[in-house]
Specification:
Low-confidence stretches: 256-271
Strand order of the largest sheet: 1-4-5-8
CATH architecture of the largest domain: Up-down Bundle
Number of domains: 3
Helix content: 40-55%
CATH class of the largest domain: Mainly Alpha
Number of strands: 8
Largest sheet: 4 strands, mixed
CATH topology of the largest domain: Butyryl-CoA Dehydrogenase, subunit A, domain 3
CATH superfamily of the largest domain: Butyryl-CoA Dehydrogenase, subunit A, domain 3
Oligomer: single chain
Length: about 400
C-alpha cells in the first residue's frame, strides 16, 4: 500500500471511528485514559475510542502485531499521528508501559516476557510505574540501596523508592534492584518486574505544592519476585535503565510539543483581543509568537532525532538535550498562560477542578526540571558526552 493510500484510508477510518467527545482537549486527569485493572472510564466515548484503537493495534502503532501492535512502518505511524492531530483526536491510551517499559522489553526482554506483558500494555489492561529513584539515590542513581537476595527461584526484595509516579494506582512496577552485592555499583543492579499486589509492597502518596499528588513513596519489605521476572541478565539493569531513560525523557517532553504549538488560549477567555482577533497586548503576542516558533523548531528536531534513531543511530546522550529544552519550553508555556490570565490566573478553587488548573499546572511545571533527571544533570551529560568538554 502506498503512503498516500494509507493516509486516505486512515483519515476516513479516524473520521468514522473517533467519537466527537474525543476530539476536544482533555480538561483534567479523568479525561486522560491510563488504563489498568482498576481503571474507570470517564465516559462511554473514552472506552469506545480505546477499544477501537486497540483493535487496530494503534495504541502502539509500530509494535509488532504479535505483541498487540499495529505493525506500522515509522512513515505510516507518522501519518497516523498527523491525521489524529488534524481532527484533534486525543491519545486513546497514555501509559508508562508504552513510553518506557515497552521499548525496553522489545529490546531486552525474552520471548515469554514479551508475550506476557506487551499485549496487556497495548490493550491498557495493566498500568505500570517506575521504581528508580531512592531517598539517597536520585541524581546518583547507581548508588541505590534497594536490594534483592536470591532465595531459590525468587528474589527477596527490601528497600524504598521515591517519586514513584502513580504507584498507588499502578498494577506492576519495573524496578532497579541491587542483586549482585560484590559487583561494582553500576554492574550489580538488576531490572525486575514486580506485581504491586505482592505481599510486602506498599505505597504512600507525596503531596506537592500544586495540591495534586501523582508521586508516591514505594516500600519493599521482604517482597518476593520470581527470578524469571528479571529483564535481560542479572546485573544488566544499569544498561537497561540508561536505554529506558532516553525514552522516559522523550516522553516527558512529548506533551511540550503538542501544547507548545498552541501555547496560550487564556487571552481569548478574558477577551483581550483586537479587531483582527489577535492577542491585543503586543508584548504578549510577541512572546507567544516566539514560543510557537521555538516549539515548531523543537518538534522538527524531535522528528529528526527519531528518524536517526529509527535508522540505527540511537538517541543516546542527545535525549538530555531534548529533555532540557523541552522542560524550558513547557515552563515558558505555563508562564505565558499565567501572564495572559492576569489576576484570574491566581484562581485556586472553583466549582470544577479545572477552574484552578492554570495555577496548579504552572506550579506542576516546575517539577519538569527535576523529574527524569534534573536540568543540572542533563547539562552535565550534554557537556561531557555531546560536547566532550574537559572535566574539572
Amino acid at each position: 500500500m502506498s503512503l498516500e493510500t494509507f493516509r486516505t484510508e486512515t483519515r476516513a477510518w479516524l473520521e468514522a471511528n473517533c467519537p466527537p467527545a474525543m476530539r476536544v482537549p482533555a480538561k483534567g486527569e479523568a479525561d486522560i485514559c491510563w488504563g489498568g485493572k482498576n481503571w474507570t472510564f470517564a465516559s462511554d466515548d473514552q472506552r469506545i475510542w480505546l477499544e477501537r484503537m486497540v483493535e487496530r493495534g494503534w495504541t502502539v502503532p509500530t509494535w509488532p502485531k504479535e505483541y498487540g501492535g499495529g505493525g506500522l512502518s515509522k512513515e505510516e505511524a507518522f501519518i497516523l499521528k498527523e491525521e489524529m492531530k488534524a481532527i484533534r483526536a486525543r491519545s486513546p491510551l497514555d501509559s508508562f508501559g508504552i513510553w518506557m517499559l515497552g521499548p525496553a522489553l522489545l529490546k531486552y526482554g525474552n520471548e515469554e516476557q514479551k508475550r506476557e506483558h506487551l499485549p496487556k500494555i497495548a490493550r491498557g489492561e495493566i498500568r505500570w510505574c517506575q521504581g528508580y529513584s531512592e531517598p539517597g539515590a536520585g541524581s546518583d542513581l547507581a548508588s541505590l540501596r534497594t536490594k534483592g537476595v536470591k532465595d531459590g527461584d525468587e528474589y527477596i526484595i527490601n528497600g524504598q523508592k521515591v517519586w514513584t509516579s502513580y504507584a498507588d494506582k499502578s498494577d506492576w512496577i519495573f524496578a532497579l534492584v541491587r542483586t549482585e552485592a560484590d559487583a561494582p555499583k553500576h554492574l550489580g543492579i538488576s531490572f525486575i518486574l514486580i506485581d504491586m499486589d505482592t505481599p510486602g509492597v506498599s505505597t504512600k502518596p507525596i503531596k506537592l505544592i500544586s495540591g495534586k499528588s501523582p508521586f508516591c513513596e514505594t516500600f519493599f519489605d521482604d517482597a518476593r519476585a520470581p527470578v524469571a521476572n528479571v529483564v535481560g541478565k542479572p546485573g544488566q539493569g544499569w544498561e537497561i535503565a540508561k536505554y529506558l531513560l532516553s525514552h522516559e525523557r522523550a516522553g516527558i517532553v512529548s506533551d511540550t510539543v503538542a501544547g507548545g504549538l498552541n501555547p496560550v488560549t487564556a487571552s481569548h477567555q478574558v477577551g483581550e483581543v483586537d479587531e483582527h482577533g489577535r492577542i491585543a497586548d503586543p508584548i504578549l503576542r510577541g512572546d507567544v509568537a516566539r514560543l510557537t516558533i521555538d516549539a515548531l523548531a523543537f518538534e522538527a528536531t524531535m522528528r529528526r532525532v527519531k528518524d536517526e534513531a529509527d535508522h540505527g543511530e540511537g538517541v543516546g546522550a542527545r535525549a538530555s538535550i531534548l529533555k532540557y529544552v523541552g522542560t524550558e519550553l513547557n515552563k515558558r508555556r505555563h508562564e505565558l498562560n499565567m501572564s495572559a490570565l492576569g489576576s484570574d490566573g491566581l484562581l485556586w478553587e472553583g466549582e470544577k477542578e479545572e477552574d484552578g488548573d492554570p495555577a496548579r499546572n504552572w506550579l506542576r511545571s516546575r517539577a519538569n526540571s527535576i523529574e527524569g533527571g534534573t536540568s543540572e544533570i542533563q547539562l552535565n551529560i550534554v557537556a561531557k558526552r555531546v560536547l566532550e568538554l574537559p572535566g574539572t
